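Ops channel
N.P.: pipeline sanity check, posting one input/output pair.
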C-alpha cells in the first residue's frame, strides 16, 4: 500500500530572480558557504579508496541496487544514498570502511551556478555514482569483478537490473521516500497525487502541467531554448569543449555520432557548437526540443556502456564517457537557417532506457518530416541521472553570453526547459531564405 497522505514539500525556487540562495538547504542544493568546512574531492584521488578491494566495491554497488527493492522502500538506503546517509548504513561501512573517511575529509559532489543570481550551490553526488567511478578508473578492463564479469558488463547488468526493479508495481512504494529525500515539489505535476503512479519509473518520467515550462522569447523565431531541466555547459566549438570540459581522448564528432570520419555527417558537423545538458536523479526527466525544425528520420541507436556521466567522469582525460555510453541520436533541420542539429540522448549508470515520444506515443510510420516547435516534448529517460548532447551545425547559433562565461569557468549553470540558451545567427537565416 503506497503511503499517500504526505504534504507537498515547499522548497525555494532557485530559478526565481527574487530567491536568495542562502535559503537553500535541501539535499540536492546546498549554498557554497555551507560546505566551506572541507574541500571538494576534485578528480578521483585513488588514495580515497585505495585499500578497498574491487570485489567489495562491486558487492556494495549491487547491494545498493538490491536495497531499492528490499529496504522498506527507503531510497536513501539504496541508489539515492548520499554521504550524509552513511551513518544509517553500517552494512556499507563493513564493505567499504574508507567511505566514512572520504566523507569526513571531502564533500563528494559538484558546484553549479544559479543563473539568475550568479551564486554557486553544491550538489551532493549519490554514493552509487562515486563507487561506479572508482571501479571505472581503477578497475582495469581486464579485471573480473567477483571472478565473473568485466567492469563494463557489471555496470550494464546493474543498470538493466535497476530498470526492472523500478518498473515493478512494488516500486511505487518508493515514490514517497524519493519525494522526501530530494524535497521535490509536486505542485507543477500533471498528476500531483503520487498514489496514481503505478510504478516508480512512471513517477520518475512524470509529466508537468502544460504551462509549467513556458518557452522564453517564444515570439522570436531566432530563439534557441533549453532541452531539459538540467545543469548546462555550452561551447561555441568542439575544440573549446575539449579544452574546458570534456577531456576524453576520443571525444570527436565522428566518435560521438558513431560515423566514419570521412562521412557526409561527420563533415557536416565539423566545427559544430555543442550544449551538454546533464540531468540529476531529482530532475524532471522529460526532454524537449530546443529549436523550431523538422525531424530528418528515425533516431539512430548506438550500443555502448552505462558509465556515470558525472562531471568528474566527463573531466577525466584518461576516460571516454560520452563516446563510450549507449546513446540514441535524432537528426533535425533547423527551420530558420536550414542547418542541422544532432540531438543525442545519452544513457548512463542505472538509466533504464531512453524513450522517444515526439509525434505522440502512439505514432506510426516514419518520423521523417515531422515538424517540432521549441519546447515540445521529444522523449524521456527512465531511472537515473543522464545527459543530452546537442550538436548545432557551425553557424547555426550563438550561445547566450552568461552561459558561455560560466562554462569557460568549468562550471555548469542550472537551467529549465524553455529557458533561452542562444540565438540563431541572422546571417545564416538570410542565406537560407
Amino acid at each position: 500500500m503506497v503511503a499517500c497522505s504526505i504534504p507537498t514539500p515547499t522548497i525555494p525556487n532557485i530559478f526565481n530572480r527574487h530567491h536568495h540562495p542562502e535559503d537553500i538547504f535541501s539535499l540536492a542544493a546546498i549554498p557554497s558557504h555551507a560546505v566551506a568546512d572541507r574541500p571538494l574531492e576534485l578528480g578521483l584521488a585513488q588514495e580515497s579508496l585505495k585499500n578497498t578491494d574491487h570485489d567489495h566495491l562491486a558487492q556494495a554497488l549491487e547491494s545498493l541496487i538490491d536495497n531499492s527493492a528490499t529496504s522498506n522502500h527507503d531510497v536513501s538506503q539504496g541508489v539515492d544514498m548520499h554521504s550524509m546517509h552513511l551513518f544509517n548504513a553500517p552494512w556499507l561501512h563493513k564493505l567499504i570502511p574508507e567511505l566514512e573517511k572520504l566523507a569526513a575529509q571531502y564533500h563528494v559532489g559538484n558546484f553549479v551556478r544559479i543563473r539568475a543570481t550568479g551564486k554557486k550551490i553544491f550538489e551532493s553526488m549519490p554514493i552509487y555514482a562515486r563507487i561506479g567511478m572508482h571501479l571505472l578508473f581503477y578497475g582495469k578492463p581486464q579485471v573480473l569483478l567477483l571472478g565473473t564479469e568485466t567492469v563494463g558488463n557489471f555496470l550494464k547488468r546493474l543498470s538493466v537490473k535497476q530498470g526492472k526493479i523500478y518498473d515493478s508495481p512494488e516500486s511505487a512504494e518508493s515514490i514517497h521516500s524519493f519525494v522526501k529525500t530530494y524535497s521535490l515539489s509536486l505542485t507543477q505535476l500533471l498528476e500531483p497525487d503520487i498514489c496514481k503512479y503505478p510504478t516508480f519509473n512512471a513517477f520518475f518520467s512524470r509529466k508537468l502541467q502544460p504551462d509549467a515550462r513556458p518557452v522564453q522569447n517564444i515570439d522570436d523565431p531566432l530563439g534557441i531554448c533549453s532541452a531539459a531541466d538540467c545543469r548546462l555547459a555550452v561551447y561555441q566549438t568542439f575544440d573549446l569543449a575539449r579544452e574546458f570540459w570534456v577531456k576524453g581522448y576520443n571525444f570527436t564528432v565522428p566518435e560521438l555520432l558513431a560515423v566514419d570520419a570521412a562521412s557526409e555527417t561527420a563533415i557536416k558537423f565539423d566545427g559544430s557548437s555543442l550544449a551538454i545538458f546533464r540531468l540529476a536523479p531529482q530532475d524532471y526527466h522529460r526532454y524537449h526540443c530546443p529549436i523550431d525544425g523538422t525531424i530528418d528520420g528515425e533516431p539512430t541507436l548506438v550500443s555502448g556502456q552505462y558509465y556515470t556521466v558525472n562531471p568528474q567522469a566527463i573531466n577525466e582525460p584518461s576516460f571516454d564517457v560520452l563516446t563510450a555510453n549507449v546513446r540514441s541520436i535524432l537528426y533535425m533541420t533547423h527551420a530558420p537557417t536550414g542547418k542541422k542539429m544532432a540531438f543525442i540522448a545519452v544513457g548512463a549508470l542505472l538509466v533504464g532506457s531512453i524513450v522517444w515520444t515526439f509525434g505522440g506515443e502512439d505514432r506510426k510510420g516514419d518520423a521523417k518530416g515531422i515538424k517540432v516547435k521549441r519546447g515540445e516534448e521529444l522523449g524521456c529517460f527512465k531511472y537515473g541521472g543522464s545527459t543530452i548532447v546537442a550538436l548545432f551545425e557551425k553557424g547555426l547559433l550563438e550561445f547566450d553570453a552568461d552561459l558561455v562565461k560560466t562554462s569557460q569557468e568549468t562550471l555548469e549553470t542550472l537551467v529549465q526547459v524553455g529557458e533561452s540558451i542562444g540565438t540563431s545567427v541572422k546571417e545564416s537565416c538570410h542565406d537560407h531564405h
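N.P.: looks fine end to end. The radius of gyration is 21 Å.
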